[in-house]
Amino acid sequence: MRLSFTAIIIIIILFWSHTVATQPVRAAIHNIGSGGCPANTVVGGDNLIQNGDFAQGANGFSSALINRGDGIYPDDSGGGGFSIQNGNVVYPPFESNPYLFGRPFPGDEQRDVPPSNTYFYSNPSAANYSAGNGRVNLWSKVVSVAPNTTYNFFAYFDNLLDPVKSANGAADPIIELRVNNISVGTTVVPKTPDRWVPIQFAFTTGTGVTSLTLQIDSLTNNTFGDDFAMTQINLKQCVSGVGAAKYAFPPQATQHNGEDGYRLEYLITIRNLGSDPVSNLQATDDLAAVFAGAEAWEVIALENVNESGFVPLTVNPNFNGQTDKQLLTPGQSLAAGHTARLRLVVWVQPPEGPIVFANRVQLTAVSGNVIVTDTSNPGLDPDPNGNGDPKEVNESGTTVTIFTPYQYLLPIVLR
Questions:
Q1: Mean pLDDT of the chain
Q2: What's the CA gap between 107 and 377, in Å, rounded?
Q3: Are 316 and 268 contacting, i.e. CB atoms less than 8 angstroms apart?
Q4: Which residues are within 8 A (CB) of 89 and not within 5 positions of it... i.e. 6 or more apart?
């Protein structure tokens, strides 16, 4: 029986359709790069990785390395491996001339990552690299995610070798982060500067993606120098960030209820730095803590600054900085790119001696389905470098007013 050309085409289409339908759907990702979250977004919400700080020991993940046991030096002569360590450690047998040092992770305020005393000590052997053709999987875990969502995959690493004693011949570890067995980038963990360093790579999930396999591999392929610690492995969403700044005018001598004191005027700037609106916006100002050393103080006014470029928010009429520390009424929202500014006036009676009144505003909001936060920056701009991330180290500090016995105001920023 001879088939017509049309029939042949129909058969080919049906075969192709069946073949495609029976193929597994690939969990595609779009790699954004080592800069972390894209511009005008920040990491927010909970860490999707359980036991990322290894506080629960060697649980909840897989590794190609042998677990040598908690608090053990995973020496190469014993086959290398990994060990969960705690606190400051000088690794044996080097006490007489140590060059391997472990230390706790101090935390990262910019990415809302708390400190950690526990960490993963990685020390692959030559056999590990040989078995993996130059690659060793240190850590691997499957996590649940949402489709069409941008995430930042990041962790913190510390080169354990003394930068001076190991300067000749010791390799710097090469770390690779992988998502669904696809490399999202490699980074070197240097001996200098001698500190914990973040390694981060952002990516966007494809349609229909609900889980991912995350991996951290060592590509060092050199057993002299691949000793390092890692902790606080994170997977967090990239969302619109909100930022706050607080500016203090010089104090003005004035009377209140017949008492001598000073008028302190503050400007509080609140900005949505992202491309999406935020909801449940709230700013908290604990004035009771700020003025704990004052003879007396009282909130005089809290209002919007009604000037061009600022959108109004509904201020909390019951704010007193003591029993009610919220500057805004509940349920506030702020559109993408919009800025609001509040004026707060406080009367204060300082003591006779020198005193510092130090203040920071805490900001929270909901972006998408996650909570984002910020601590105020001294001045008028929540994001002075304009990169959309107000949580960087140099963009968060304390706004202060200093009274001396001569009532001079000294300009200073405490960080």
A1: 88
A2: 19
A3: no
A4: 71, 101, 102, 103
Residue type, 50: Q
CATH architecture of 26-240: Sandwich (2.60)
Burial class (CB in 10 A: 0-12, 13-18, 19+), 94: middle
132 φ, ψ to 5°?
Answer: -100, 15
pTM of the shown model? 0.80
Q: Which of 201, 197, 198 is nearest to 178 (CA)?
A: 201
Sign of CA dihedral 385, 387, 393, 399: positive
Structure tokens at 337: 């790119």
Helix or strand (DSSP H, E) at 233:
strand 228-240
CATH numeric code, 242-414: 2.60.40
Of 271, 38, 13, 315, nearest to 149 (Cα)? 38
Question: Any idea where the domains of the chain sit in the sequence?
Answer: 26-240, 242-414
Beta-bridge mates of residue 26:
none
Token digits for 239?
């969302």
Length of the chain counted residue by residue = 415
Taking every pair of C-alpha atoms in the chain, what is the biggest distance, in angstroms?
A: 111
CB atoms within 10 A of CB 219: 18
The mean pLDDT of 38-63, rounded to a whole number, is 94
Q: Extract the tokens encoding 330.
A: 């509940």
Q: Which two tokens stand for residue 10?
A: 């129909």
Name residues whose C-beta falls within 8 Å of residue 24's C-beta, 6 or more positions apart in sequence. Answer: none
Q: Are 394 and 265 in contact (CB under 8 A)?
A: no
Model confidence pLDDT, tens digit, residues 156-184: 999 998 887 766 667 889 999 999 999 99
All residues at 6 or more sequence positions from 347 whose CB lies less than 8 Å from its CB, including other chains: 254, 256, 261, 262, 263, 264, 297, 298, 300
Lay out the sheet containing 398-403: strands in order across: 355-359, 398-403, 413-414
- The answer, yes or no, to whether residue 380 has pLDDT greater than 80, is yes
CB 236 within 8 A of CB 161: no
Q: Taking a C-beta distance cutoff of 8 angstroms, is the pair 242, 273 a contact?
A: yes
What does the alpha-carbon distance between residue 407 and residue 413 come to, in Å, rounded to a whole number?
18
* Run of H or E including 238: strand 228-240
Q: What angle do CA 185, 59, 194 make, to 5 degrees?
A: 50
Taking the C-alpha atoms of residue 150 and residue 66, their distance in angstroms, rounded to an integer, is 33
Residue 27: which pLDDT band, with cuts at 50, 70 and 90? very low
| 224-282: pLDDT as tens digits | 778 899 999 999 999 999 999 999 999 999 999 999 999 999 999 999 999 899 999 99
